[in-house]
Amino acid sequence: xxxxxxxxxxxxxxxxxxxxxxxxxxxxxxxxxxxxxxxxxxxxxxxxxxxxxxxxxxxxxxxxxxxxxxxxxxxxxxxxxxxxxxxxxxxxxxxxxxxxxxxxxx
Length: 106
Fold this sequence. Notes:
Elements: H1 15-21, H2 23-26, H3 30-49, H4 54-61, H5 65-73, H6 92-97
Helix pairs in contact: 3-5, 4-5
């Protein structure tokens, strides 16, 4: 049953459609865009240093390899919910050395 006439309509749209509708995604502030790109470059560098494939990281995060590639590109439309699940992001070094919370299977 469709409820496109009610306030729940946006919850039925695919994330890519929502990203297309959002002005902040279409034209993010320069500082935000630069920060996402820098974070993405750092995540990519960390992945390559560990010799992990996109598929390896995607499996650990529970997302597709395309989502990991979007994170590495700093794509503004990528859900912020995926960043904390990245085993290569900020805090990953603490986890690897025992200084942070350990994550099962990583």
